[in-house]
Design goal:
Elements: E1 7-9, E2 12-14, E3 18-20, H1 29-38, E4 42-44, E5 62-67, E6 70-76, H2 85-98, E7 103-108, H3 115-127, E8 132-137, H4 156-169, E9 174-178, H5 185-195, E10 199-202, E11 206-208, E12 212-213, E13 218-219, E14 230-233, H6 238-252, E15 256-259, H7 265-274, E16 278-281, H8 283-288, H9 292-307, H10 312-315, H11 326-331, E17 334-340, H12 350-357, E18 363-369, E19 377-383, H13 393-397, E20 404-412, H14 419-422
Helix pairs in contact: 1-2, 3-4, 4-5, 5-6, 6-7, 7-9
The protein binds flavin mononucleotide (FMN).
C-alpha cells in the first residue's frame, strides 16, 4: 500500500481515508477484523446501547431499489446491535491488540434523557482502547420510539446535553453522528460544537419508504403487509450527504466524517472536495463486500496522479465555502445560453422533447449536410437563442458528452424574458 493515501483524522494516522461505517459490516469483532485485513483504514463498531435495552429485530428488515439491475438505494429498519456489551468489550480489546495501526471507533447510543447511561457506555469504550467514540444520534427507526436515535439530534438542547456529557467523561475524541431528518441541521451541528464535539459525522440514513409492489399491493419492505418508515442509504442519498457536510462545516468549522452514498472512489473524492476529512461506507460494502476497498484505493491513487497531487491532504477541497445563497448567485453571475456542437449531435431529439415539454420550447431539429456521406443530410439540434433561458435541462439530458454546453451570453440577469412569459399562451 502506498503511503500517498495516508490520512490524518482526529490526530490518528490511517493508511487511507476509507472507514467502514457503523452497520451490519461491523456487526462483530470478526467482521471488523475482516475489514482491516481487506485494507480498510478505520472501522466503527455497530452501535451498542444500554445493557438493559433488549434489541429484537423484525424480519424482513432490508430492501433495495434498483435501476438497470444495480442497487441505487437501500431501506433498512434494523436496530442497533443485539449483542451483549460485555462481548463487545472483549472483542474490542482483542482488536486493539491485534490492529494497533488501525483506527477503531466505538459507537454508542442511549436515551436522550439518561446522561448516566451515555456516560457509562463512553467510559467503557475508552477503557477498551477505542481511538474515538461516535455518538449515534441518528438512527431514524425503532430507536426513536424508545427516546433514542434520531430524536436525540432533532432537539438542540438534547444534542448539547449528550455531547457535553460525552466530553466530560471521554479521554478520546468524540464524533457526533447527526440525522439529516431535520429542518435545519446547522442548529444541531452548532449545539454539538457548543457541547465540545471533536468532529461531526453526517449523514445517518434519510427517512423513507423504498417502494411498493404494485401487483401484491403492499410495500416492498413488508412485515405481514405493514411497514415502518425506515432509513434510506446508498448512492441515491449522496446529494443529501453533500449538503449536510457543507452545512455542518459552514456552521462549525469542525472536521467531518462523511457517510451517505459512497459507492465508488469518485463519490469519496466529491466528499473530500466538499470539505470532509474521513469517508465512511456502509451500503456498498453490504452489497459488494469488503474487497471494494482495493478499487477505492486504486481509483484514489489514479486521481492523485491525474491531478498532480502528492497526498490526500493536497487533494482535499473547501467547496463548502462555495455553497451560498440564491441571492448571491443572482448578483454574481451573468446569464447563460446553450450551444450545440453540430459535429457530435446525433439528432436524437431528447433535448428537443425535454425543452418543449418543460416549458421553454427553445430547441428544434434542423437538417445539415452530412459530411461523412457524400450526398446525405442529417438532423441536429438547433437553439432558438431568444427563447433559451440557460436552464441546463438539455445539457443534463443529452446522452452525448461534449455536445451541448452553456456559454456566457454576456448579458446581466435578469435575462430578457421571451414573449410567452408575458402572453396568455391559451389565447
Ligand atoms: C442495515 C443498516 C444498519 C445500520 N445500522 C447502524 C448503526 O447501528 N449505527 C449507526 O450509526 N448507523 C447505522 N447505519 C447507518 C450507516 O452507518 C450509514 O451512516 C448510512 O447507511 C449511510 O451510508 P451508506 O449510504 O454508505 O450506507 C445502518 C445502515 C444500514 C443500511
Amino acid at each position: 500500500m502506498s503511503s500517498r493515501l495516508f490520512s490524518e483524522f482526529l490526530g490518528f494516522q490511517m493508511e487511507n481515508p476509507w472507514c467502514v461505517a457503523s452497520a451490519p459490516p461491523t456487526a462483530t469483532g470478526k467482521l471488523m477484523a475482516d475489514a482491516f485485513d481487506a485494507g480498510w483504514g478505520c472501522a466503527i463498531m455497530k452501535t451498542v446501547g444500554p445493557v438493559e435495552e433488549p434489541i429484537i429485530n423484525v424480519a424482513p428488515r432490508i430492501q433495495t431499489m434498483k435501476k438497470w439491475n444495480r442497487e441505487i438505494a437501500m431501506q433498512n429498519i434494523e436496530l442497533i446491535t443485539d449483542r451483549r456489551l460485555s462481548v463487545w468489550l472483549d472483542e474490542l480489546k482483542t482488536l486493539r491488540k491485534r490492529y494497533p495501526q488501525k483506527m477503531i471507533i466505538g459507537s454508542v447510543m442511549a436515551p436522550g434523557h439518561d446522561m448516566s447511561a451515555w456516560a457509562k457506555l463512553i467510559e467503557e469504550m475508552n477503557k477498551v482502547g477505542c481511538n474515538a467514540v461516535e455518538l449515534n444520534l441518528g438512527c431514524p427507526h425503532g430507536m426513536p420510539e424508545r427516546d433514542m436515535g434520531a430524536v436525540c439530534s432533532q432537539d438542540a438542547d438534547i444534542v448539547y446535553n449528550i455531547v457535553s456529557t460525552a466530553k466530560s467523561v471521554s479521554k478520546v475524541p468524540i464524533l457526533t453522528k447527526l440525522t439529516p431528518n431535520v429542518t435545519n441541521i446547522k442548529v444541531m451541528a452548532q449545539a454539538a460544537k457548543k457541547g465540545g464535539t471533536d468532529a461531526i459525522t453526517v449523514i445517518n440514513t434519510v427517512n423513507g419508504i423504498i417502494g411498493i409492489d404494485i401487483y401484491k399491493r403492499k410495500p416492498h419492505l413488508s412485515v405481514n403487509g405493514y411497514t415502518a418508515i425506515g432509513g434510506i442509504s446508498g448512492n441515491a442519498v449522496k446529494p443529501m450527504g453533500l449538503k449536510c457536510v457543507a452545512e455542518c462545516r459552514q456552521a462549525t468549522g469542525l472536521p467531518i466524517s462523511a457517510t451517505g452514498g459512497i459507492a465508488s472512489w469518485s463519490d469519496g473524492v466529491e466528499y473530500l472536495l466538499m470539505g470532509a476529512d474521513q469517508l465512511q461506507v456502509c451500503t456498498e460494502i453490504m452489497i459488494r463486500g469488503f474487497k471494494i476497498v482495493d478499487n477505492l484505493n486504486k481509483g484514489l491513487e489514479k486521481y492523485l496522479d491525474e491531478m498532480g497531487f502528492q497526498t490526500i491532504q493536497e487533494a482535499k477541497g473547501e467547496l463548502y465555502k462555495n455553497v451560498t445563497s440564491f441571492d448571491y448567485l443572482l448578483k454574481h453571475s451573468s446569464s447563460e445560453k446553450v450551444q450545440v456542437n453540430e459535429e457530435t449531435c446525433t439528432g436524437c431529439n431528447l433535448c428537443v422533447v425535454a425543452c418543449e415539454n418543460a416549458g421553454y420550447d427553445a430547441l428544434k431539429l434542423k437538417e445539415v449536410e452530412d459530411k461523412k456521406r457524400t450526398q446525405g443530410r442529417r438532423k441536429v439540434a438547433e437553439v432558438i437563442v431568444d427563447k433559451c433561458t440557460g436552464c441546463n435541462l438539455c445539457v443534463a439530458v443529452c446522452p452525448v458528452p461534449a455536445c451541448m454546453s452553456l456559454y456566457d451570453s454576456q448579458k446581466a440577469f435578469p435575462y430578457q424574458l421571451h414573449a410567452s412569459y408575458a402572453e396568455n399562451t391559451l389565447g
